[in-house]
């Protein structure tokens, strides 16, 4: 599946966002190794710190369905004038289930897209590297 298609799925997922506090909808789409796509949206809470980002929502969907490795990620933030990449906490969580070279593609309301990898977004992922050696 190409990244534009994955982005379109992320954009659709953003429609389900529960974001009454920030009014900032985000959707994420994760491509599993077998080609299945799992999507998620941000789910806010009146106790603001409990908000769950779209990326972690998608990870939870995929892992709950039995997938532990994802090939690619797209993130759509239709309320943002600039492309929105995953927050720091999500980079850590995504790195658990994605290889460093896995592509990450993200955008905002305009046509600009950032095409990068988990390794670029979350370098020196020593704990992940150690997991392969122990
Ligand atoms: N948010 C995400 O879901 N993913 C990101 O990559 C950035 C931020 C959400 C959290 C919160 O609901 C809203 O966007 C504003 O930060």
Description:
This protein is an alpha+beta fold and 134 residues long. It contains five helices and five strands; from the N terminus they run H-E-E-H-E-H-E-E-H-H. The chain has helices spanning 3-14, 54-64, 88-97, 118-121, 126-131, and strands at residues 27-32, 37-41, 70-76, 103-107, 113-117. It starts with a helix and ends with a helix. The mean pLDDT is 96. Bound molecules: tetrahydrodeoxyuridine. Tetrahydrodeoxyuridine (THU) is lined by residues 19, 22, 24, 26, 42, 44, 51, 53-55, 75, 84, 86-87, 90.
In short, what is this structure?
With 134 residues, the chain is an alpha+beta fold. It is built from five helices and five strands; from the N terminus they run αββαβαββαα.
Would you tell me the overall average pLDDT?
96
Radius of gyration: 14 Å
Strand content: 15-25%
Number of strands: 5
CATH superfamily: Cytidine Deaminase, domain 2
Counting DSSP H or I runs of 4 or more residues, the number of helices is 5
Provide the list of bound ligands, each named once. Answer: tetrahydrodeoxyuridine
Q: Describe the largest sheet.
A: 5 strands, mixed
Instruction: State the secondary-structure class.
Output: alpha+beta
Q: First CA to last CA: what distance?
A: 33 Å
Strand order of the largest sheet: 2-1-3-4-5
> So what's the CATH class?
Alpha Beta
Q: Percentage of helical residues?
A: 25-40%
- The low-pLDDT segments are none
CATH architecture: 3-Layer(aba) Sandwich
**Approximate shape:** globular
* CATH fold-type name: Cytidine Deaminase, domain 2
When the domains are counted, the total is 1
